[in-house]
Amino acid sequence: MGSSRSPIGSTKSQQGFSLLELLVVIFITGILAAITLPQLLAIERNQRIRGDAHSIAGDVGLAKMRAGADFTQARVYLDLGSNKHWVDEWDQANLCWHPEGTVDGTCATVAGPAAVALSPGVTAGFGVVGAPPPNTTAGLSQASACTTDNKGTATIANTACIVFNSRGMPLNSIPAGLYVTDTNLVYGVTVNASGMVQTWGTSAAGANWSLR
Question: Environment class of residue 152 by beta-carbon count within 10 Å: exposed (0-12), middle (13-18) or buried (19+)?
Answer without folding.
Answer: middle
